[in-house]
Amino acid sequence: MPSAKHAVPANRLLAALPRKDRERFLAGCESVDLVFADILCEPGERLDHVYFPLDSTISLVTPVDGYAALEIGMIGNEGMLGITLTLGMDFSPLHALVQGSGRALRMAAAPFRRELAASAALQRGLKRYLYVLMSQFAQTAGCTRFHVIEARLARWLLMTRDRAHSDVFHLTHEFLGHMLGVRRVGVTRAAMSLQKRRLISYNRGDITILDRDGLQKASCECYLTDVQTYDRVLGTAPPP
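Predicted structure:
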């Protein structure tokens, strides 16, 4: 696989590193293509690699009773998969699968630990990202318990849009049901409501966001809270 040594770091965590730290880190990465529905790790499984998405999206899913599942987190180019390694934990607590196909930078666990030990800036950035991710988990737990499906779907679509960098993506009602932890009929009704309000269009799994501002108004406040938390803790612009 091609080296990512000279790649432009589209991942915002890596882009925020000082140049020297960033170039050394990128030299140890490889560029990989993530394919929709591929499983990157299972609960209790040893983490062999970390992933820094560039234009791909990863869903973090927790199993429930061995049968059902619920997405509690989403990772795009604002974050990374494998954050538990920063805590000295080699195992994944969650199921991670590719939600949106695309590229990512990958590094094996052992060299990642060495880079972490060598770079105070990397440590600071990943600790802050861990805080953001924990906040997202907590926000999702409250959202799932207290907010209606339509508002939750609007939030989820906005989060996906931000990470896909596109208003168009392909997702079936069945997949959305798994991510939101609801029956397919519930997703269908919520999607039809958003479509009637001309906020989205949906045809055979192809979803297009027609009115982002309107969709944000239809969403619960959880979406804006997530965005504000990221901006407050990590900021949006990389340093010079």
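Summary: DSSP finds nine helices and ten strands in the chain.
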